[in-house]
Amino acid sequence: MTLNLIKTYILNFLKRSGSYVFLATIFAKILSLAASWVALQFIDNQDLGILLFSYNVIVFILPISGLGLHQSLLRFSALNNNAEDKNHIFLYVLKYGLISCLVLISIIISTSFFISFQFEKAQFFIIILSFLLIPAFLFEIIKTQLRINHDNKNYAYSEFLYSLIFLILITVLTFYYQENGYVISLLLAPVLVSLFFIKKIKIKATKIKIVSELNFQFWRYGFFASLSNVVTQLLFAIDILLIGYLINDAEMVTNYRYVSIIPFSLLFLPRVFINTDFVAFTEKILDKNYIKTYIKSYIQMFTILSFLLIMFSYFFGSFLLSLLDESFIKYQTTFFILMLGISGIFILRGLFGNLLSSIGKAHINYYIASIALIINIISNYYLIPKYGIKGAAITSAILMWLTGLFSFICFKKLYKRVLLKAK
């Protein structure tokens, strides 16, 4: 029974061009790892640590670019069967999303002058990288529209092309301009890819018509969905920020960043399936049997996959770390703890977090992530000074499982209410 469910699940995934998304994402991750390796070769560890510290400040703000309107675009367009309405929703998101990005950039720049940064040049990098919000938002809504159009092939190609262009840019620019070249690469890559794919989303430039979906609920959903992603991003970034603050050693920031690269890169696996299937299961969210079968198939497959990855990391962790740098081998235990943690995202968090969004309960994800963030900060203030980067890994691993468990409990209760309301 288990094998049949998994087989059917994978076949449905492949029918939705999931193989393109899967392969493109793998190549994109490989290229991303290569880009990280290139940066390590051409940029001094101390300078790279400061840049990564600054970049992680912007990373947790990126999901809120456009005030999360790209999140609303995905869900509300998926629920609307009218092609003309979908076109107006996109144009509305594009217009007001760009305005929101400009407001956020102004706030970031203004705020940076009232903060005392621990590392030299951190403020400079944060100000320049704040402009990443605009190209990142444009690229995000283009990818979102491709998914809405069930054009998973071009969605996959866009992810791959972005990583390829970024690798080329970072190889050339960091060689000549070191950390400044890294910054330019981050800003330029999404612009080039967006220009290439903008014609493929098949949007007609017309006067925006306010359709029924474009109301307060549209903004509320996107805002909380984006806040949830901000806090979730911060859950990953806070470790690096707290390591930099509590240990006051930029090189340890670099060490944790690279030791965590492989575990966090593996999070693409559940994301590939969810990104491919989100529009499909949102369209059928009121079909209880469909959703129940989807959940069962997903959990069975990712439980098996998690077990295999944990065993592999236990026996070959040192080898994997040595591929990045021989000096990282001594952090094998930290690496293994993070691998245990991501299995919680594989099995629970990735699935039920997205199902909560699918039923319009994105604010629940925000509440769960916010509570986890508070626990993360309190725990790391104790564990990082005592255990170093291993302490940060312990906190992250526990919270990955706890947030997944709470997402499951909340979805189970709220989904029953949604079904009863729909009757």
Automatic annotation (TrEMBL):
Membrane topology: Multi-pass membrane protein
Primary location recorded for the protein, binned into one broad class: membrane
Keyword ATP-binding tagged: no
Protein name in the entry: Polysaccharide biosynthesis C-terminal domain-containing protein
Segments crossing the lipid bilayer: 20-43, 49-69, 89-116, 122-142, 154-176, 182-198, 218-247, 259-281, 302-321, 333-352, 364-383, 389-411
Alphabetically ordered keywords of this record: Cell membrane, Membrane, Transmembrane, Transmembrane helix
Subcellular location: Cell membrane
Record carries keyword Transmembrane helix: yes
Pfam family, one: Polysacc_synt
